[in-house]
Amino acid sequence: MKFVDSCEVKVIGGTGGNGCIAFRREKYVPFGGPAGGDGGRGGNVVFVGDSGRTTLLDVALTRTLVADSGEHGRGKDQYGKGGSDRVVRLPVGTQGFDTETNELLFDVDANGKEVVVARGGRGGRGNIHFASPVERAPRRAEPGEAGEERTLRLELKVMADVGLLGFPNVGKSTFIRAVSRARPKVADYPFTTLVPHLGVVAVGEDSNFVLADIPGLLPGAAEGVGLGTRFLKHVERTRALLHLVTLDPSEGRDPVADFDALMFELGKFDPALAARPQVVAMSKADLPDVREAWAAVRGRFAERGVDLRLLSAATGEGVPETLNLLWLALTTPPVPPDGE
């Protein structure tokens, strides 16, 4: 299934039914009076969080979501039936923004959470409501009101505990395949991962967390370069980060420079992201060049106050220790600022 994490959709609440103009016509009741019932209320458009969904594709293809209209009122004091709600299931982590004001309207951040995004119109009153001592046979009723109508921009931000970060080709996809049942594409060229992949990682017998393999980025991502903010927005909900670096002489890249560049992009997009707990590891320890360079690179990271770990997703070296550090970062309460 195609991964879609952003789309626009028009939502329209159902129109209320019209009120009815009618009179009682019964034998032996010469002055029966008004008997027109009210119209039914229009249905609402409702979004519901569904943890089984991972894409906005269905909504993107629909484009317009309209709830049912209410039935019109009828004679003999019969009220019209209310319109059915249009219930749409969305992936957990979907946010809705007003396209005109860019205001955040709702956040479907839990499985089963319901949000009414367009309310149906009120049904019109029938002529039974307009009778009075002065006007005993009213020949007027109200039309049903139109439902709410608005255009929304939906943004899906994956719900994960840990975000897996790194430049292209540092081994993120290989790592998540090694520690979970997620199966992202693995190849020896950049940007093999174009969409986030989620995997459930077990730590011990009774503990687990959700790891998100986030697509790689380039310098300037905060301004939209490369995968740009499509990458960065999926990091916002994570509580900890696993930052992978490695030696890549063929690309002329340096692990420390890569780390600095990625941290700069995180801080530029949202300073709170750069301040999240993180574990930094040098991947591909099964390669002789990487293992040989690790000690020197670790010393350079130590100058930045970072304890660089060493791991190999291919052989499993250092992986359990890294997972334990991530679990510790997730379960350790944050230290409050001085003075609080």
General description of the model:
This protein has two domains: 6-156, GTP1/OBG domain (Spo0b-associated Gtp-binding Protein, Chain: A, Distorted Sandwich); 162-331, P-loop containing nucleotide triphosphate hydrolases (Rossmann fold). The protein has a six-stranded mixed β-sheet, sandwiched between helices. It has helices spanning 57-62, 172-179, 228-232, 255-269, 271-274, 288-302, 319-331, and strands at residues 6-12, 45-50, 64-66, 86-91, 94-98, 104-108, 114-118, 149-156, 162-165, 197-203, 207-213, 240-245, 278-282, 309-310. The protein has 340 residues and is an alpha/beta fold. The chain contains seven helices and 14 strands.
What do the pLDDT scores average to? 84
By CATH, the topology of the largest domain is Rossmann fold
Largest sheet: 6 strands, mixed
CATH class of the largest domain: Alpha Beta
The proportion of residues in beta strands is 15-25%
Give the full name of the CATH homologous superfamily of the largest domain.
P-loop containing nucleotide triphosphate hydrolases
Global morphology = rod-shaped
Integer-rounded radius of gyration = 29 Å
Into how many domains do the coordinates divide?
A: 2
Query: SSE string, helix = H, strand = E?
Result: EEHEEEEEEEHEEHEHHEHEH
